[in-house]
Amino acid sequence: MDLDKQPKKDLIIDDILVMRASRHLNIVNYIDSFLHKNDLWVVMEYMEGGSLTDIVTVNLMTEGQIAAVSRETCQGLEHLHHHGVIHRDIKSDNMLLSLGGDIKLTDFGFCAQISDPASSKRTMMVGTPYWMALEVVTRKEYRPKVDIWSLGIMAIEIIEGEPPYLNQNPLKALYLIATNGTLTIANPEALSSVFSDYIAKTLEVDAEKWPMASELLQHPFFNLCEPLRTLSPLIKAAREIAKNK
Questions:
Q1: Burial code of 186-212, b = ≥16 C-beta within 10 A, e = fewer?
Q2: pTM to 2 decimals?
């Protein structure tokens, strides 16, 4: 990265610091960084499968596969939250995969470090509008559990290929999230009852009722998880489509 062309250098530094301090199977592994003249080189684990976005925009996933993706993401969030880090930008773009189906969080530029995960709160509105929790949009005080809302939005994104309100401009989307609250999907009857309950738990309007990542991992939806290797054909299909464009 040419540092002269980076308007928000502090976000890059935050990204590096969080990755360096966060060693976990579901977080992209930071290796090293170097400054050469004015170029910053950051060496990270190579996730050759690309982003989850590449997959969900061209493939349909089973509930078991969605459960597996959600579980791996939630495990990464549990680790971050335990260490007082709020990711604040959970979405398919920031989930990277290996060819074998391993899933890891990346992009920590919007992270917030808090001293006490149980009581410390933030009020700054940061993230990507379509995945933002109500508390973040309305600038209310919030805890790490705001990432759980974004996890629920990501589940809808996987089902429908995009998050709610993506056809609206970002400001209109923020307004709709703030005023409409509960989000719905086009064909809720197509989901199993346990999947519907999982989405309802993650997208609960009352922030006090949001589960912590550690609690959410006990949800029966994760009993449906298929092996991560079942994602490999989807990754290969997405790569093939991208290659032929």
A1: eeeeebeeebeebbebbbbeebeebbb
A2: 0.83
